Predict the 3D structure of the following.
Amino acid sequence: MSGKKILVIDDDVQLCQLTSDILEEHGFQSVVANNTDQGFKKLYEETPDLILLDVWLPSIGGLEFCRQIRQDARGRHVPVLMLTVQDKESDKVMGLEMGADDYMTKPFSQRELLARIKALLRRFDRAQPEVLAFTTGDLTVDLDKHTVRVKGKIVDLTPKEFDLLTVLFKNRNKAVSRQTLLAAVWGFDSPGNTGTIDVHIRHLRKKLGLHGDKIETILGFGYRFDG
């Protein structure tokens, strides 16, 4: 699940920052909005994999925001984890009726937050057909056969290079942080080890030829595969 993008929509700026830090420490990407207007904008620009949504928000409120995105093709299938300071059954029922997929009461622990996010992502991943091959132009990444081909010819990649390309490919046109890549490919996220990402990217670009130019460097952050 590393590399999944979470949109956090809450008017509590400090809570947003804390939640964002927790998510990124555990390999997720995070995008923050502090009201529903920003929430719509980020939803359409960032195409998140999950939305963490506060009930009480400026503008139209979290419940109405959830209802509206469920009527929009761009937000219809994005899992929503609703947050509230109230623990009333009626509030939970209303949230679920508006289209939320799960409900969590503030304050919450880091452990509960991560557990609920992972459970929702697993549920929605199972509901989606597994994609076993990705293609852009004459470049094909086959997850089933564990091969990469350019113009039909096999490109000889190391296991780490293949996994790195796969993560970037799955997140095409999205910036992926070095920490996220470390967690997804190497299984750790120590800041002192981010240099290994740059070395592997350099080798990967060389092996992919012209397609290597599609791996863009995001200064101070990470990389993005355009294609």
Observations:
- The radius of gyration is 19 Å.
